[in-house]
Each structure stands twice: as C-alpha cells, then as structure tokens.
Amino acid sequence: MVYALYIIVLLVCVYTARHYWFTLNRLFGHQRHPYIDIDTADWPPVTILVAAHNEEKVIANALSALMTVKYPEDKMLVIPVNDRSKDRTREIIDDFVDRFPGRIRPFHRTGGKAGKAAALKDAMELVTTEVILIFDADYIPGAGLVKQLTAPFFDPEVGGVMGRVVPMNCGTNMLTRLLDLERSGGYQVDQQARMNLRLVPQHGGTVAGVRMSALQEIGGWNDKSLTEDTDLTYRLLLFGWKTVYQNRSECYEEVPETWQVRIKQIMRWAKGHNQAMVAYGIRLLFGKHRANLRERIDGTLLLGVYIMAPLTLVGWVLALAVFYEGIAPLHGIVALLAFTAYSAIGNLAAFFEIAAAVRLDGNRERIRLLPFLVMGFTVSIFSVSRAAFTQVRDALTGAEFHWDKTERFRTAAP
Amino acid sequence: MTASLALTVVLIGAGLLLSLPLIPAIIELRRRSDAMPLIVVQDHAGEIRYFADSFRSFVGSIESVLQACLLSGQSEAGTMPDGTNYLALGSSELPKLPSGRQAYVTNARNRTIHANKETCEVLIAAAGNLQLPARVVFGRDIFAKGDIAGGADNEYRAILGDRDIHLAFGSTLQRWVHANGRFTAEAECRLFGRVSSDSSIQLATMCTFLRLNAPRVELGKIFNDAPEVDDSDLNGRSKALPTRGDAMAGVGLREDGIRKRLLHDGDYELRAGQIFNGNLIVRGRLHIGDGAKVQGSVKCEKDVLVEDNAEVTGSLIAEHKLTIGRNCSIHGPILSEREVFIQRGSRCGTRGLPTTVSAPLIFAEDGVVVFGTVWARELGSVVAG
After folding, report:
1. What is the pLDDT of residue B241?
2. Separation CA A295–CA A202 (nearest Å)
3. I need a labelling partner for B331 at 20 to 30 A (CA). Which of A217, B16, B61, B317 fits?
4. What is the phi-psi region of residue A288: left when phi exceeds 0, alpha when psi lies from -120 to 50, beta otherwise?
5. What is the Cα–Cα distance from A129 to A133, expressed in whole angstroms?
6. Cα–Cα dist A157/A139, whole Å
7. What is the pLDDT of residue A331?
C-alpha cells in the first residue's frame, strides 16, 4: 500500500515540476513563433470544414466570418459538415450557399455513426486540397486567421496546426470566468511552452489544420475516438509529423455556461484522452517510431493528465489509510513536512501557471478570481474520475462509448 | 469564558482567516471590472499597409485645403479634427524664414538624442512634390501627393507618398513608410518600422531594416549576372534543369500530384548538380551542393548551407542558421529561427509568385532580390558582397 502511495506521490511531483517548467519557460524562455511572419506567399488551396450538429444558434456567425477572411477566394472552399441536424442548421447553411455561390459546398449528413470524427471522415469525400482547416460551428474566425493557420504548412514537416481558443462569453457568470482563466493557462502557457520546448503541442480539433497527405498516411479520422483531436496528435507524432501551436492565431469560442454542460464536456474529453492513452501510451514511450526522446516523455505525460485525477483520489485514500495504519516509518514527521512542502509549492503550480498566463494576456483584475479555481478543480477532479471509472466499467461490460455534443448558449441567428 | 464560547471564537476566527483570500475574488466577481473577452483582432490581418491606409483616411479630411494650396501655390497652417497641427503646402519646399531657418522647424529639445538636429512638430501634407531639408527630426507624419525627397541625416516618424519616396544618406525611420511608387533609401539608412511600396523598394548597402514589402525588393547594388526566374519554371515543369550532377534523388510525387517526403535522421548532403524530387526533411544539418535543385520543399532542424546556383522550388526552412549562396533561386517562403544570410545575386520568389523571407536576423549581400516580404524580427542589414 505504501509503495503505491509513493508512486502516486512521485507522479504528482513530476506533474508539478512540469507545470513550473512550462510556466518559467513561458515567462523567461525563448518564444517560438516561426511561421507567424509569412504574410506573402503563393497560398495553397484550402478546404475549411465546419463541424455542425444542431447549430442553428451559431452556424450563421461562423459562416459570415469565414466569408470575410482575407484569403484568395479562388483558393478557399468552405464545407459546412451538417451532421444529422434536426434544427434549422441545414436551412441556414443552404441560405449561405445561395448568397455565396461557389464558395461554400455543403455536406448534409443524414445518417451514419454519431460523433464529430465520423462526420469529418464522411465529409472527406468532398476534400481535394492538401491543406484542411477545421472549425467548430461556435467559432468566429478573424480576418487573418486562415492565412495564419495555413502558413505552417509551408513547412513540409508539419502535419497539424493548432490555434488559440479565446472564450467570448467569459463574463456571463462565475463558471465562464473560471473557464476563461483555465483556457488562458492551457493555451498561453501550456501549449506555447510545449511549442517553445519542441515537445508535443496538442491538436485541439478546432481552430486547427491538418495536412491531407499526413492524414491519409496515418489512416484518416478515427471515428472510434471520442476526442479525434488527441487521437490525431498522437498518430501524427508516431508517423514523424509535427503538430505546431500558433499562439497568435486566436479565435473566439463559446464556453459552457452551466456546470452540467461543463461536466459533460470534461467527461467526454477525459474519456477520449484515456482512450488515446490506452491506444498509444506504451507504443509512444517504448515503440519504434519517429518521435524523439523528449517527445516520447512529454507525449506520455500529456496522455496521463486525465488519469491523474482518479490517481490523486486514490492517493488521498491511501494516505489516510497509511496514516491510520501507522505503516510508514516516521510517518508523522514525514507526512507533516511533505504536506507543508506540497501545500506551499505543489498546489501552487497550477495557479502559478494560470496567473502567469493572465498576466501575459495583459489582464489585471481577473487574476483575483484565482482562489475560486479550487472549486473548478474540485468539480473537474471528481468528474474526470467518474469518467475514468465509468470507462473501465463500460470496457468490462462491453458498452459502447456515447458521444455528447456540447450545448450552445448564444441566441439563435434570425 | 466558557469552553463553547472559546470554541466559537476560534471557529469564527479561523473562518475569517480562511475567507480572507476570497475577499478580492468576491469583489471582482461582483464588480466585473475585468470580465470582457481577450481582444482578438477580427477586422484586419496585420497587413503592412494598415497604418498607411489609416493615415490616408486621416489626411483625407484636409483634401480641400490641399487643393486650394495647389491652386494658389501658398502654404496654410491649421488643426486636424483630433487637434494635430498641420502645414499644407502648395509648393515643393517648406517655407523659409527671413533668417534662412526653416519655418516650423525649431531647435531640438533633446540634443543628446538628435545631435544638434532641428525638429519639426507639425504634420506636413503637400499637394505636389515635397523636398525636405537635411538634418531635421520630423516628429509628425508626412504626406505628399507627389514625389518625396528627403535630406540627409533626417529622422522621420512616418511617411506616405502617392508617388516615389527617396530617403537620403543616414536617414532614420521610426514607424512606417509607404510609397505608391518606388521607395529608395541611400546608404546607412536605418528603417525601424514597416516599409512598403506598390512598385518597388531599393535599399543601398549598409542600410538596416525590419519589415519590407513590395512586388520587388532590391537589396544593395543590383548586378545583371543573376538569373531571372520565370514563373513557369516551377512545380516540376522546368525544362532546363541543372545538368552537372550525375544523379536524381528523392521520393517523387504521389498519384494525386502531392509531393512525397523523405524524412532523414542525421546530416544529409545533396551533391553538386544533383536533383532531388520531393519534400526533404532533415533532422541534422543539410548541405545542398553547387547547382543542385530540390523540386519540392526543404525543412532542416539544424544549419543549412545552400551552395551557389542552387534552386529550391518550394519553401526553405531551417531551425538554425540558413546560408544561401550566390545566384541561388528559392521560390517558396524562406524561414530561419536564427539567421538568414543571402549572398550576392540570389532571388527569392518571383514576380508572379511572391514570397516571404523571415528570421530574427537577416543579412543580404548586394544584388539580392526578393519578390514580396522581407521580415527581420531583430535586425535586417544590407551588406557589401
């Protein structure tokens, strides 16, 4: 029992050190933005896939924004992937097709497997370009975003590109404000540090791009995955393709406004991530492939982020058991010192990362909300743990994964 | 004091202590003083001409004044809607005082910075050509409907010209310049901001720069022995390939025309005259020999040395130092995360297919021509070749 606890403590310490390393790199290290200056080029033809499942509230905003981006019109085709929508999504898309002839080719999917990956997989029959960009329907790309996300594909080593997601409804309530802080930490520090350190920036599946030949080489979209983006990241890595992160390629999104929706969202992310961990973890760390040592280590740690929540819970239980059993030598003093040290340094790591991100973003007052993140972390730790336990249960009973779409909160377009 | 009262006091005290860090959070949650989304630029793509276009709209408000000055040949001073003082000119030169000193030009306030230069603190708008005196610090923007010719050792904030702009020896630009016609700068000019032209840019030797954009950018003295690249000589459609090498290499094309890639761990050398067909990714150092040709794009995770007369039809990207020899031709974007050194006579991009050269440090010898953008994050310099 005590050795299991030691292993968990070691893992927690590794992730703590990782948080500090990333944050300090972001604050003081060399920042890599190698492709952001490409503003003149023979721009390649691009297909933009907009995944939409019952998106009547948001799809018009996304398509309107895409029709005004600064990219050669004859080299850009937008394909709204209408995935079995039962609301006005189809009607809104067809209206845009009429208003912008030749620039939008709709893909109306009426049947087939549920899930974004399955819908994108089916839509690939319409794609003929080497560069594919992907947006969710609630995203509002700015004028320069398509060029910025396409530029990295001039690098023949790049298989995937990821931009930065910025919540546009962050001021709605406490949850959206906390999610805004978490997103800042995740992108402004975590992703950019991984880019700086040549580790494994994660493909997010939206505000993102993928190279068609790379996608074909790795076997296309995996419609069995709950998070096709994580799955894509690791298959690209195993085949020697780089995923790059562009911190300055920012795009507005809508974050969940209720805790129920947030819990569903994070549970789906956790399940998908754990799927990828089972599928690629051992192979990434020990297998024969094109990833280098630092990518192997960082990629493995990235795969483990969602499994750390249930492990931490187990660690708490084990720590209590060890304490009351009196198993550990000098358990009183060691436990006290360890607890004090971790409270002072360890717990601070995630807060430090987010505070640094908020400061880098130039925001000052919202940093005061940091103490409330304890609430968000607590909800996350139990939701993610629940996701992991149900995933194990489903695996044992043979139940199929269920794909939950994230609910939208914007007012429907007229 | 009873035990229960003491316990209550302790609990309340502990509760207050624990809630102390939450007070600023609660205040912010209620006041919502910083609850707006992060500002994301939605309406422009960071175009180099963004400031020039904004300034053109700004000076449009005195168009009628400029027309009147042009007809009368006189000058007129006034104030823009935002309070900026301007001087509208109907002739090509700034009006002179009887003493011979420039009107609107006063002694420099900070002689340690401007080294005995005089300063001009009004916006200058000329209805025709504009001839500027030497050794003056122009603290406000300058606009002319005709040609602009600056004097030596001047310092400018920003310049917009409807026709050609010429900066004399040793001039300094702080923010931006845009010429609808040609932009030329004599030796030892320091161009800290954006320089753009709808026609061409020509910088003399020893000029430094950060960001240049024009259909044709000529760096240093142009020689006529460099090859002119034809747009049709791209994407594997070349008729006259280098022939000194004895081998073809590479991985070729897929059935759908997409280039295959060669991913090589360690150093790689493409021999002189050799032709490589496909995309080349090297995780060590890369040496492209004299007259070799890559029909595709190149990425290298360490230093790249491209020898004279070599050609790359796609992009050329290095994570470390990138050296391009004489009379090379690179068609796609050229990037380095450290330094790009381009030697005499090389061509980047073509007139029909412009491109970008970008790195923290860019050094270009005399006779380098770039069609498109040159963007040095820290320092760009034209050096003698």
Report:
1. 43
2. 12
3. A217
4. beta
5. 10
6. 27
7. 60
- The CA distance from A133 to A80, in Å, is 12
Kind plus residue range of the DSSP H or E element containing B78:
strand B76-79
The answer to whether residue A366 neighbours chain B at the CB level (below 8 Å) is yes
Higher pLDDT, A47 or B101: A47
DSSP-derived secondary structure letter, B223:
P
Is A400 an 8 Å CB contact of chain B?
Answer: no
Q: Check if A186 contacts B (Cβ < 8 Å).
A: no
Would an 8 Å CB–CB cutoff place A240 in contact with chain B? yes
**Of the partner residues B33, B45, B280, the one whose CB lies closest to the CB of residue A143:** B45
Residues A217/A240, Cβ–Cβ less than 8 Å = no
Task: Compute the CA torsion angle A360, A361, A365, A366 (nearest 10 deg).
Answer: -110
Q: Does A168 touch chain B (CB under 8 A)?
A: yes
A213 CB near a chain B CB, below 8 Å? yes
Mean pLDDT of chain A: 90
Token code pair at residue B10? 């302790």
Nearest to B28 among A40, A148, A369 (CB): A369
Query: Which band of pLDDT confidence, cut at 50, 70 and 90, is reported for residue A313?
Result: confident
Residue of B nearest to A31 (CA): B337
| Alpha carbon distance B171, A347 (integer Å) | 55
Closest-CA residue of B relative to A129 is B258
Structural tokens at position B158: 């920003």
Q: Which among B21, B22, B258 is the nearest to A213, CB-wise?
A: B258
Q: What is the maximum span of chain B, computed from C-alpha positions, in angstroms?
A: 103
> What would the pLDDT profile of A118-129 be if each residue is shown by its tens digit?
999 999 999 999
The label of the residue with tokens 């000529």 reads B218
B179/chain A closest Cα distance in angstroms: 18
Summarize pLDDT for A168-196 with one digit per residue, the tens. Answer: 999 999 999 999 999 999 999 999 999 99
Bridging pattern class, strands A158-167 and A140-141: unpaired
Considering chain A, what percentage of its residues have pLDDT values greater than 70? Answer: 93
CA of residue A272 relative to chain centroid, distance? 11
Interface contact B35, partner A, CB < 8 A: yes
Burial B246-256, CB ≥16 within 10 A → b, else e: eeebbbebeee
Nearest Cα of chain B lies from the Cα of A213 at a distance, in angstroms, of 8
Please report residues of B whose CB lies closer than 8 A to that of A41: 332-333, 354-356, 372
Which residues in A381-394 are b (16+ Cβ under 10 Å) and which e?
bebbbbbbeebeee
Chain A residues lying within 8 Å of B282, measured CB to CB:
none
Q: How far is A41 from chain B (nearest CA, A)?
A: 4
Counting Cα atoms < 13 Å in the Cβ hemisphere of B159 gives 35
The H or E element that residue A317 is part of is: helix A308-325
First to last CA, chain A: 61
Structure token pair of residue B120: 């001009």
Prediction pTM value? 0.89
Burial of B196 (0-12, 13-18, 19+ CB in 10 A): buried
Closest among B163, B165, B160 to B186, alpha carbons compared? B165
Separation between Cα atoms, residue A191 and residue A205, nearest integer Å: 14
